[in-house]
Amino acid sequence: MATQVVVAAPAKINLCLGVGPVREDGFHPLATVYQAIGLFDDVRVRPAETTTSLTISSERVDVADVPTDRTNLAWRAADLLAAHHGIDEAVQIHIHKRIPVAGGLAGGSTDAAAALVACDALWGLGTPREELLALAAQLGSDVPFCLGGGTAIGGGRGELVTPVMTRGRFWWVVLPDPVGLSTPAVYAEFDRHTDGAAPQPEVGHDLLTALRAGDPALLGPALSNDLQPAALALRPDLEARLAQGIIDSALAGIISGSGPTTVFLCESADHAGAVADSLEEVAGALGVFVAEGPVHGARVIAG
Ligand code: C5P
User: Fold this and answer.
1) Spans in the chain with pLDDT lower than 70
2) How far apart are CA 100 and CA 129, in angstroms?
3) Considering 41, 42, 111, 142, which one is annotated as catalytic?
4) Percent of the chain whose predicted confidence (pLDDT) is above 90
């Protein structure tokens, strides 16, 4: 058995997030386009003697609210993979966090996807992709996307992923917010806004055309997020952050997923650097990041 495996786990953003009326199981039907971006947590696993444990480190991100017990999604991923193979293995999991917590960037989901990949490699299981995707879907709606990364349409409750053709790279400025937003709370607010009568969502052709063309000027007006009005209703102060990015010349700004992180589309790496510099002042202690997309999904980088 390897002595340790380290997996890089990317953040995701939603380029569009179409949301339908709540289903009987409490989830909402989604028509979304995910993109994995170059902002990574590292998830390291090592064999443990008897019991699994989990530790977290971070330089900038506030990790006070991240559980370090078996309720952590990465720990649950390790347990789920072991149970799936009928093996009894314990691991030390260490997560180095760079992705803001409860930010709408799928930080917890991507750590879970990474834990599946890391334990699969550590235990030498070679689990078929389809089985890993099914386990990922049990852990959360966007965990399957985090396994594959890139750019992909998400259907169902977000767990059914189909890769999308894109050309070139897109440059994003990511502006985290110090106060996390609860995803269920944002969906509940969405239900109140739409009175449970939202239309069935679809992915727009203009977005797919812009991605195929690799043209950020086309992509800007095609970005959309049905959860944005609900997130802004819960956090009206985010409106000013969105406006600031546009004043600072980004092509477009959008709330990421259920928020509160805002992301800004830029023309190039240099343009993104300039927009990020001008947002430093509103960013505060959490800082502001430049990230390119698309990038790969959860992938072994050492071990
Ligand atoms: O799937 P996941 O555990 O990440 O979802 C977290 C919560 O987000 C769910 O409990 C639900 O309240 C909400 N959600 C939803 N519809 C989706 C995905 C998530 O209502 N498609």
Assistant:
1) none
2) 28
3) 142
4) 92
Tell me the HSE value of 250 on the side-chain side, using a 13 A CA sphere: 31
Cβ(141) – ligand 1 distance below 6 Å: yes
**Is there a catalytic annotation at residue 142?**
yes
Nearest CA to ligand 1 atom 10: 184
**What span, in angstroms and rounded, lies between the C-alpha atoms of 111 and 39?**
12
Instruction: List the one residue out of 260, 148, 156, 203 whose CA is nearest residue 15.
Output: 203
Residue 68 contacts residue 95 (beta carbons within 8 Å): no
Residue 162 makes CB contacts below 8 A (sequence gap 6+) with: 152, 153, 155
Does the CB atom of residue 14 touch ligand 1 within 6 A? no
pTM of the entire structure? 0.97
| pLDDT, tens only, 107-140 | 999 999 999 999 999 999 999 999 999 999 999 9
C-alpha span between 153 and 71 (Å, rounded): 28
Tens digit of each residue's pLDDT (9 = 90 or more) over 172-216: 999 999 888 999 999 999 999 999 899 999 999 999 999 999 999
Q: Which of 12, 42, 177, 226 is flagged as catalytic?
A: 12
Is 97 a catalytic site residue? no
Measured from the Cα of 187, ligand 1's closest atom is: 20
The span from the CA of 263 to the CA of 219, in Å, is 13
